[in-house]
Amino acid sequence: MRLLVVCLGNICRSPMAEGALRHHLAASPLAGSVEVDSAGTSDWHAGEPPDRRAIACARQHGVDIAGLRARQLRREDFERFDWLLCADGQNLRDVRGLAPPGLAGKASLLLEWTGIEAGGSIPDPYTGGPADFDHVWRLVDSAARAAVRRLSCG
Ligand code: 4NP
Q1: Which of 14, 34, 46, 112 could form a disulfide with 5 if both were Cys (CB 3.0 to 4.6 A apart)?
Q2: Single pTM value for the model
Q3: Of 120, 90, 112, which is closest to residue 7 (Cα–Cα)?
Q4: Distant-in-sequence, close-in-space partners of 114: CB < 8 Å, separation ≥ 6
Q5: What Rg do the C-alpha atoms of the chain give, in angstroms?
Q6: Is there a catalytic annotation at residue 88?
Q7: Which of 8, 45, 136 to mutate to test the pocket of ligand 1 (most atoms within 8 A of CB)?
Q8: Beta strand pairing status for 35-40 and 107-109?
Q9: 13 annotated active-site
């Protein structure tokens, strides 16, 4: 099973979600059987580490995401990954717009796919403050725990 988390810049929400997913999967019976990556719909921050506020927030929760590097979503990702899990509705529209024929169904909202909230979006914290990053962490951490449950049920 291969999961790709997608947001706009790949420096805030999706690397935080990638870190939370890796953390909870590693501590589960699924360890080693689920591959996780993240990407941005834009190339604005390609090659950069996560935003320092995202790194600090994840670190406060015991997760190290400093080694991640941003990259842009590419069409091959639709072949490689089973699911492309988007942070918000705009990301989902952008991802579906890039999908090769027949593969748009692999794209979903992360919060919806994990059963947290139908139609739910993770708000962009980029222009916000530490409380906004904490809010993102709570959402992606809940989503990661729920993803482990979903994948464990077959
Ligand atoms: P992300 O946040 O999509 O969660 O990585 C953003 C990062 C950068 C920008 C916007 C959102 N930006 O405008 O550069």
Answers
A1: 14
A2: 0.98
A3: 90
A4: 142, 143, 146, 147, 150
A5: 14
A6: no
A7: 8
A8: unpaired
A9: yes
Residue in 13, 77, 86, 94 annotated catalytic: 13
Crossing angle of helices 13-26 and 52-60, rounded to 10°: 30
Q: How many domains does the chain have?
A: 1
The 10s digit of each residue's pLDDT in 84-140 is: 999 999 999 999 999 999 999 999 999 999 999 999 999 999 999 999 999 999 999
Q: At residue 144, what is the residue type?
A: A
Q: Domain of residue 137: give its range.
A: 2-152
CA-based nearest residue to 147, from 51, 42, 25 = 25
CATH number, domain of 129, equals 3.40.50.2300
The position carrying tokens 């809010």 is: 135
